[in-house]
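Try it yourself: sequence plus pyridoxal-5'-phosphate, in.
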Amino acid sequence: MISSRLLRAKNRVPKRLFGTTNKDETDRNNKYLAATYDVCDSVISKANGIYVEDVEGHKMLDFHSGYSCTNQGHLHPKILQALYDQTKKLTMASRIFNTDISGEFAQFISETFGYEKMVPMNSGSEACECAVKMARRWGVMSKGIDNDKVTVITTHNCFWGRTIVSMSGCSDPNRYSNFGPLVPGFDMVPFNDPDALEEKLKENPNICAFMIEPIQGAAGVIVPDDDYLRRVQALCRKYNVLFICDEVQAGLGRTGYMLAHQFEEGVRPDIVTLAKATTGGVLPLSLALADSHIIDLLGKGQHGTTYGGNALGCAVAKAAIEVIIEEDLCERSRVNGAFFHNLLESLDTPVIKLVRGRGLWYSLVIDRPGQAKEFSEVLAKNGLACRNTDGESLRFAPPLTIEREQLEQAAEIILKTCKEFE
Ligand SMILES: *Cc1c(COP(=O)(O)O)cnc(C)c1O
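Structure, out:
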């Protein structure tokens, strides 16, 4: 029997309570939301662990993980518990107050990542902009570069967000064209090319920093040569330039290491940025990490954001990063990633051209130019949610909690999908 309350609700919003379709919801989204993302046909209403489910009840293995936000799996009980517990006590006080969780969280982050201090923010772009601000500040105040000439070097095809400053330091015209003047003070070199970096460093004494993703994510999981980061670090030291690692997507276990640059022994960037998986997909929270001699160059009123370091975020992020440690998600990503890599390479189909990646982060390049989006829609239909990176490649990033059996299941779905394209 339907209660009268439900009946009233039914009259008010019938579709929401009594069934809607992917098509209906897509139409509604198209009508009211800015069309700034190339969205999938599935409209998600639920998730748990490594699964997402669309509004029609179709359950899929989540091989997207909200762009690697849910490395810990969706709705992780420990993270949700921290959310509930902190919500009952204090969610927001603003940074004019320290809270009983902000110091504890900052100490935990310092001890976990080995940097003296942190700046807490919301989005990855903000964290990267903060890194650029710190580096410019260091360039002017410590290195003595002219304020108007200080320059940050980034790499071709890098991605660090879509704000005006982050699009100013990128090479994709689609991202920066027709938005008015760009922010000056950026220059670029090819990724994975230390010689090109050295050329730049030699010719321009006004460079304060080199900023890279240790593995380029949005560019399609581009893994550099094994000694690239070490060589970059040596060059940065030789030319007295800060080395910034943007670990927003690659960090927090995704590539088999807490920080992706730890793949190369002896690498320790001067500044590290984190976001995405910091809270396991529960809240936006980003961090810039550095030692005091850099971070203390930001004085009072010179950086901040209202929600940065809010009590709820601190509690949730601490729990979420503890989950990565307690559940050995880095090790699991490394071991299961290698297992999955082999599995993908063993698939007998001419449709797969190339598999590349590290940990549980892959790009699958298909030998069907221009069909990657369609391929991802067929994958979804077959039970695996993911997204194409461009016309011929797809990015895979399942939650790191995924088991081997489920990876085998994923490989079967991928093979089945390939067969449909043969
Ligand atoms: C996603 C991403 C960013 C930007 O993060 P937002 O939270 O979207 O602002 C920066 N750097 C890298 C490497 C990213 O993948």
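One thing you can check immediately is this: The two ends are 51 Å apart (CA to CA).
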